[in-house]
Amino acid sequence: MLRRGRAVRQMCKWMACSALAASLAIPAPAQNTDRTRRLTQEQLDTMQQKHPGMAGALDPANLAKPRPKPPFDITGTWFVDLSEGFNKFMFGPPYPEFYEAGQQAFKEGAAARARGENYRDSIGQCYPAGMPMIMTRVWPIMFIQLPTAIYMVAGFTNSFRAIYLDGRKHTDPDIYVPTYNGESIGHWEGDTLVVETQGFETDHHWIDIGLPVSDEFRIVERIKKINNGNTLEIEYIMTDPKNWKGEWRNTKRWDRVTEADIGEVECTEARNANLPGTDRGQQELDTRAGDQK
Amino acid sequence: MIGRNDVKTGKSVLAVAAFAAIVGMSGVPADAHHSFAMFDQSKSVSLKGEVVQFQWTNPHAFIELDVPDGKGKVVRWSIELNSPNNLTRQGWRRSSLKPGETVTVTINPLRNGKPGGLFNKVVFADGRSLNDGRPTDGKPINVPTAN
Questions:
Q1: In Å, what is the CA distance from A173 to each residue of A169, A198, A215?
Q2: Using CA atoms, how far apart are residues A183 and A200, in angstroms rounded to an integer?
Q3: Residue ranges of chain A with pLDDT lower than 50?
Q4: How far apart are CA B145 and CA B35, in angstroms?
Q5: Cβ contact A217:A200 at 8 Å
Q6: Which chain A residue is nearest to residue B143, measuring alpha carbons?
């Protein structure tokens, strides 16, 4: 009891002390507030996201460097050709020989569909579609081609790709932060633009019907412009030695769309609560049913 | 009011399907935000109810509809539509549906029986109607499978 009383008195002393300190701190010395904080030019420079020693793709000097004229320019808005079937937004069949995780995805996916359920509904939960699926979301995509890079923005969730053409190499994997669209570097081989992409985020990153990819997933795109410049034909050569044997190949086409623009489109989980075709929407319907009981 | 018809036999739904087939040919197909495996596209359900909310948002628009279940209760249905970009091409506007308005909506229902579905068509009190450009001929679309 005595001990507790002493503890309380001690605490009161601390509290009084801190209250006093707080009251003294109210007219805080100006030099301790964030507003007056000043950084040196060197400190400010360190805070910038840069790759020192390597020109950015939009550095005017990099853009102005003499380069051979590219065989074609893919600047434009494009829409995947689904004339042979809606499911042509998928990259198979044909499929390569999948190892265990892929085979399991086929089985689990088929079972889920048979029950009328989603399987790996990650895009429905607003995870990025990632490459290669972002190319064929049944939404338009746009490319802007500059001498140093091609920039892509997908209509679906404004997913972004940069395909560097300025001769740089892939970033050291020890530095590169894995992304759903990967890091793309392109070069010209005759009349073909060859784009190599690596550095993929693997979490909730699926192809077609829930097929997984690993950190060894690589994509080569061989891009040709055909049909008087109004169609892009891209051959996909995909490898992932952890998930399938050899090369997974698929060729797709995109037609030029002249009366379309890419607008801002977000996926928010809260809004998906009203979409019964998503897992979140299903949860919402369950919650409502529970409330009504 | 909930009416359930099989596409192959339901007269009213056949009419809807024929209409959709004509309009749908020139329309843009449904987008692929997610698979439509959950919806039974061979079935069509007609819901007469009161619009609670019509949300004009990407990647999908949606309708929340309060529908009397015929047993004295009102069930709220969640109905998903195509994206506004696609809907605009079918004549839709943000103001096309107003809260409190009574309409009849035809949907492909969820397979699991929960009160939700994929939008086919809305018929307004004055008889006008709007669809969303997706072919609704009973053949499934956007149900990715391995073969």
A1: 11, 9, 10
A2: 8
A3: 1-2, 5, 8, 12, 15-17, 19-22
A4: 10
A5: yes
A6: A87
Does B140 map to a domain? no
ipTM over 0.85: no
**What torsion, rounded to 10 degrees, do the Cα atoms A109, A112, A118, A119 define?**
-30
Interface test with B, best of A122, A134, A138 (most B CBs within 10 A): A138
Locate A292 and state its tokens: 């009504």
Of the partner residues A86, A155, A277, the one whose CB lies closest to the CB of residue B39: A277
Contact A209 B146 (CB under 8 A): yes
CB contacts under 8 A, A 52-111 vs B, are 82, 86-87, 89-90, 92-93, 95, 106, 109-110
Cα A238 to Cα A160, A217, B73, B125: the distances in Å are 20, 7, 54, 53
> What is the domain extent for residue B104?
2-131
Q: Which of B38, B85, B144 sits opposite A90 (nearest CB)?
A: B144
Q: What is the pLDDT, as a whole number, of residue B31?
A: 53
Is B139 inside any structural domain?
no
pLDDT in tens, A162-185: 999 999 999 999 999 999 999 999
Its pTM stands at 0.80
Name every chain B residue with its beta carbon within 8 A of the beta carbon of A137: 31-33
Q: What is the CATH number of the domain that holds B75?
A: 2.40.50.140
d(CA B131, CA B105): 10
**What is the structure's pLDDT at A109?**
92
Evaluate whether residue B47 is within a structural domain: yes
Name the domain count of chain B.
1
Nearest 5°: the CA angle A201, A151, A187 is 85
In a domain, B74, yes or no: yes
Question: B31: which chain A residues are within 8 Å (Cβ-Cβ)?
Answer: 137-139, 156
* Cα–Cα distance for residue pair A194/A188, rounded to 1 Å: 6
